[in-house]
Amino acid sequence: RRMFPTFQVKIFGMDPMADYMLLMDFVPVDDKRYRQVTLYAFHSSSWLVAGKADPATPGRVHYHPDSPAKGAQWMKQIVSFDKLKLTNNLLDDNGHIILNSMHRYQPRFHVVYVDPRKDSEKYAEENFKTFVFEETRFTAVTAYQNHRITQLKIASNPFAKGFRDCDPEDW
Amino acid sequence: RRMFPTFQVKIFGMDPMADYMLLMDFVPVDDKRYRQVTLYAFHSSSWLVAGKADPATPGRVHYHPDSPAKGAQWMKQIVSFDKLKLTNNLLDDNGHIILNSMHRYQPRFHVVYVDPRKDSEKYAEENFKTFVFEETRFTAVTAYQNHRITQLKIASNPFAKGFRDCDPEDW
DNA sequence: CCCTTTTCACCTAGGTGGTAAGAT
DNA sequence: ATCTTACCACCTAGGTGAAAAGGG
C-alpha cells in the first residue's frame, strides 16, 4: 500500500540545467522486533521489544517517477513521493519497497547528479547526497495498533473519507 | 476529451541507447467546413461541404508524456497516445489539441532524435522523421452525427460500458 | 434545422480502514 | 493473545454518451 502521509520535499540549490535522479530507500532504525502490549484497552496499548530483528533482504530503492529531470523542474514545486508503495511480501514483483512488519524504519532521500562526463562512474561518490529526516521514522505494521493513529489517518487521507463521522476541520 | 480510439504505434529501428521525443499533431485535410444532411433519418445522414474552413490558430503539439526516453524503452512495447485530448475551445489552457468542429483532420506522428552534440540545432532537419497514416483521418465533431459511430464507440470504449445493451463480443 | 454547451448517471481504475477468518 | 490475510463497502479521480437547453 501507499505510504501515508506522503514524503514531500522542497528543493533548493540545484543546477537548473543539470539532470538529477531523486530516490528514496528505508533503513532499519535498530535490529529489534517489536510487539504490542495491551494494558487496559486497545486505545492505550504500547510497544515492547520482542527480540532481534528478522533477517532482511537487501533494501529496494524507489526512484521518483519523474527521474531523471532538470534541476529547474525539481525546484519549481514541492516534490511528492506519493507513488511509493510499501509491502511485507518478500516475493513482491511490483517493485514496491519491502519492509518487515513490526520493525522500525528510517526513510532516506537521495539526490543523484547525472554526470555527463564519459567516466562518470569515477565520480559516483561525489555525485550524490543523502538527506535523513528523523521525524519521519515509523513502525511498519499490517494493521494499526492504536486507535488514535487510525483516527488521524481517517481524518487526513482523502481515500478514507468513507470512515469519517465528522468534519476533519473540527478535529 | 480524449481521442478515441487511441493512436498507437509499434516502433522498430531506433538506436536503443539514444534519447528520442515522440509527439503528435493534427493538420487539416482540406480547407473545407462540412455540414450534416439528414436524408430519411438520423441513422442515414451524410457529409456535405458547407464552405471554406474556419481560420485556425497555429496547431498545438502533444508530446508523449514519457518523452524523452531511450530507443530501447520506446521499442519494447506498443506506444499509446491515450493521454492526448482534443478540444474546440480556442482559449484552452490545459495544453489540449485545439481543433475546429466539422473540419477534417490528419493526425501526424513525429519522432525526434535528441542529438547530444553541442551544435545540435544545426542538424534539426535530419534529426526528426514524420509518419502519416491516412486511415487515421477523421472529422471533428461536438456530437456524433451517425448512430453507427455512437454504437461502435459504446461497444469499444470501456468508459461507455454503462450504455451497452449487449455483450460487445456479440456485436 | 443544425450545432454547441452543460449537466448527469454510469462507468473504469484504484486507494481507504473495517471485518472476519486464519496463522502462530 | 497477537499478528496476518483476503475480501468488502465506500471513497477519490476522472472518462463515457444521453439529454435538455441554448445559439444562430
UniProtKB/TrEMBL annotation, chains A, B:
GO terms for biological process: anatomical structure morphogenesis; cell fate specification; positive regulation of DNA-templated transcription. Keywords: Developmental protein, DNA-binding, Nucleus, Transcription, Transcription regulation. GO terms for cellular component: chromatin; nucleus. Pfam families: T-box (PF00907). Its main location: nucleus. Residues 1-165 form the T-box domain. InterPro entries: p53-like_TF_DNA-bd_sf, T-box_DNA-bd, T-box_sf, TF_T-box, TF_T-box_CS. It is found in: Nucleus. The keyword Disulfide bond does not apply. GO terms for molecular function: DNA-binding transcription factor activity, RNA polymerase II-specific; RNA polymerase II cis-regulatory region sequence-specific DNA binding. The keyword Transcription applies. This is T-box transcription factor TBX1. It comes from Leptosomus discolor.
